[in-house]
Amino acid sequence: MQGIDELIAETPFDRVASHYGLPLPADGTTEYRLNCVFDESCREDTYGHLTVKLTDPAKLIFCHSCRVRGNLLTLLHGLERQAPPSGGRLRGDEFKAAATKLREIAGATAKPIPVSAADESSTPPVEPSAQAPVNVPLRRHDKEGARALDDLYRDLISDPAEMSPQAAAYFRSRPWLTDELCRKWGVGYLPKNGRSLFRGWFVYTQRNERGEVISYSGRDVQFDDKWRKWIAAGRPEEKKPNKHRYVSGYYRGVELYGQSAARLSEPAIHQSLQELGLVVVEGANDVLRLDALGIGAVGLCSNRATAEQIEKIDRFARNAAGGHVVLLPDCDQPGEDGFKELLWELNERGLDVRLGWSKAMHGARFAGKQPENLTDAEWAGLSLTLRQNQHGASGTGGVRSTRPAE
Fold first, then answer.
1. What is the CATH number of the domain that holds 291?
2. C-alpha dihedral, 392 to 396 to 401 to 405, nearest 10°
């Protein structure tokens, strides 16, 4: 029976970072720093960041501003609840919840976790569910505040004239973000007086396969400027900007952006799935851009797929795309590294998987590109090559599996 201390030691921090959409630690680093997850006011402090000791088996953490300290379980508690443990240490239900979350992220088998003396908890062993976590539709949520946000997408703005200057610039740099597309997907800018913590951000509506609203996520419209300044400042780890924000308690690793059955059944999307296959990308903007082009794509909202997402990709590809999949990661090192694992996993399942592009393919002309940055002309050329290869024609395009779909 695996103890909690052993599970903490054996869980790679990369898996935790990926689960919460955090940057992955650099190779060989011994410490990892991120914004404080316990007290938002820490972020205004020069020292308001958390340090994670990656070389310590317990992955000890310490905030240099609010002084909260603990181990990986304490960090998970903060990432989930945006608050420190009540009483200073994890005990009772808080400990049980953090331990269950750790098992979910680690992908461990459903066995009870014995409580060791180091846990300082008198609670009985945790018996987590063997089932994948479920995101409850907001309209059926047990919390009144969550139910009230079911229709938040109606408050989102898609007219740049009504936005902040930074948000307007963000919209205008993406001309494919039309009013029609924004209304269809429930995306747009939430004014700074909006009824959510995403006020002042570009917001995405997250839906389940039935099309029900299950959560929202946000994109910092000032991220690109912050990123350039961060690079110019020498890439200080404690001030690395975050591009995306997710609602605490939302299990994004069990969902795919764009997974609504009604959307995948639209005539243009259905035709794309039949002719090209199911396209898998990283981000929500990538899905939106391809949708504007009439392409059936789903997004991981990460550069690495979870086991639950792989199961869905497999099911969608077989049911709607004849077992064909096209991978379009961001053409940078993190994107390609993450999708290499996905390429392997899907091939092992017997799907017909093609890598649509990479930094080196197609004469390296897409190096540094993301699907959301594709021009109409670039997509026309790339899609022609992909369609030719789909039907066995010669060309210089994607790498594909030779194994037939089962």
1. 3.40.1360.10
2. -30
Establish if 349 belongs to a structural domain.
yes
Collapsing DSSP states into helix, strand and coil, what is residue 277? coil
- The b-or-e profile of 196-234 (16+ CB within 10 A means b, else e) is eebebbbbbbbbbbeebbbbbbbbbbbbeeeeeebeeee
C-alpha distances in Å from residue 193, one per residue of 62, 95, 196, 340: 34, 36, 9, 42
Range name among 69-73, 102-106, 312-316, 368-372 with the lowest pLDDT average:
102-106
Question: Does the pLDDT value for residue 285 go beyond 80?
Answer: yes
User: CA 24 → CA 87, 128, 151, 184, 334, distances in Å?
Assistant: 31, 27, 33, 33, 9
Angle, CA 297 vertex, CA 295 and CA 301 arms, to 5°: 145
Assess contact for 365 and 303: CB atoms under 8 A: no
pTM, rounded to two decimals: 0.66
Residue 244 DSSP label: E
Non-local CB neighbours of 363 within 8 Å, separated by 6+ positions: none
Residue 221: which residues within 8 A CB-CB, separation 6 or more?
164, 166, 167, 169, 170, 189, 200, 201, 202
Sign of CA dihedral 32, 249, 166, 182: positive
The verdict on 294 and 390 lying in the same domain is: yes
| Residue 124 placed within a domain | no
**Is the pLDDT score of 170 beyond 70?**
yes
Provide the 10 A C-beta neighbour count for residue 162.
12
- The DSSP annotation for 324-335 comes to EEEE---SSHHH
For the chain, helix, strand, coil in percent to 5 are: 40, 15, 45
Of 371, 160, 158, the closest CA to residue 282 belongs to 371
Q: Pick 261 or 40 by higher pLDDT.
A: 261
Q: What count of residues does the chain have?
A: 406
Q: Looking at 194, 220, 250, which one is the last position of a domain?
A: 250
Query: 352 in helix, strand or coil?
Result: strand
Query: Is residue 109 classed as helix, strand or coil in its secondary structure?
Result: coil
Contact 244, 219 (CB under 8 A): yes
